[in-house]
Amino acid sequence: MIERIKTGTLWLLILLSIFLTIQIWTFQPNYAILKSTEYIDNTQIGEEKKLQQVIRPKQVVVHHEGGHYFSPLDSFDFIDHFFEEYSGAVLEQFILLPNIQTFSRHESGSKIEFIFPTSIPAEAIKEIFQISGNQVFIDSVDRIVLFLTSEQGKEQIDVKLISNDAQMVVQAQTNISVSKFKEDIQVESNDAYYKVFPYDVKLFGNGFKKTVYLPLESHYVNSVTYLAKPIPTEHFKQVLFSDPNFVKQYLQSNGEESFTDGNRMVNILQGGNVLRYINPTIGDLIERGNKHILYSALDFLNAHGGFTNSFYYDSTKSFGSTEEVIFDS
């Protein structure tokens, strides 16, 4: 009797084992469907831009037959047209000139002068133009002057790269079309141009001047209404903080908002029209080496949502060991 009970129990265990094995092989877990959560990863709030797209002159002045001319109609388009037209030109045979040979507005001949809002690093100039050779003799440029020269009866367009801050001038030859240059400086037959006069903002010495050009007569300009499209603050929290879950919000006494994770900070200013981002560790996180901070700022903006408008490199400020890059529209 006992032997039969043992045999029955053994068969029961064998059958149970076979049943459980089959269940394991054929088991399909019933995963609960995760509720969708609104999480924005790598939000592209703007447009990535190359270096050439964020560098633009503040003024383009045509010097012709002793006069100075600028165009008030669609001035941004005017500047872009001229600068884009001559960007990509080949520059070669660089010569470092003595200070006395710096560009003077009193020199005879026709010229086109590009005036930048701040000094542009030489590395950027190498990306805007096609530089033949590595020796350009200059670290930064704040204005570029194209001018017509004639050697042994042959006309050509040369360029002067000028740094008022460093008080240096470099001259080079270009492959710019002489006929196209002559066409661009014909201002008398173009009603879009108006006369300007030079105003020296700052004198550096040795003939170097930071000069702007102002209209001789009053001009009417069209007023422009700009409609801003608000961008939700959540978008910026996702792209500007490493972990948005640790970001805390603070409301200032003046009604402005601040967001911080204890290290980085975002301040929403002027009723939401201005965002100020502070990242004190960026200098430690990004190894710039000898590269200009403009490159680091451009890489950082492209990696964190891009540019939300037509912003251009305006200036660089230094506060002790801290550097700040400003882009303006």
Describe this structure in words.
This protein has 329 residues and is α+β, with helices and mostly antiparallel strands. The chain is 22% helix and 34% strand. It has helices at residues 2-26, 75-86, 122-128, 178-184, 233-240, 282-285, 293-303, and strands at 59-64, 67-70, 90-97, 111-121, 130-131, 140-151, 154-163, 168-174, 194-205, 208-215, 248-251, 257-260, 265-269, 274-278, 312-319, 322-328. The chain starts with a helix and ends with a strand. The model has no long low-confidence stretch (mean pLDDT 80).
Produce a short descriptive summary.
With about 325 residues, the chain is an alpha+beta fold. It has 7 helices and 16 strands.
Largest sheet: 10 strands, mixed
How much of the sequence lies in strands comes to 25-35%
> What is the helix fraction of residues, given as a range?
10-25%
- Element string (H = helix, E = strand): HEEHEEHEEEEHEEHEEEEHHEE
Question: Please, how many helices?
Answer: 7
Query: pLDDT under 50 segments (min length 5)?
Result: none
Computed CA radius of gyration, to the nearest angstrom: 32 Å
Strand order of the largest sheet: 5-3-8-7-6-4-1-2-9-10
| Number of strand elements | 16
Query: In terms of structural class, how would the helical and strand content be classed?
Result: alpha+beta
The oligomeric state is single chain
**Span between N and C termini?**
99 Å
- Coarse morphology: elongated
What is the mean pLDDT? 80
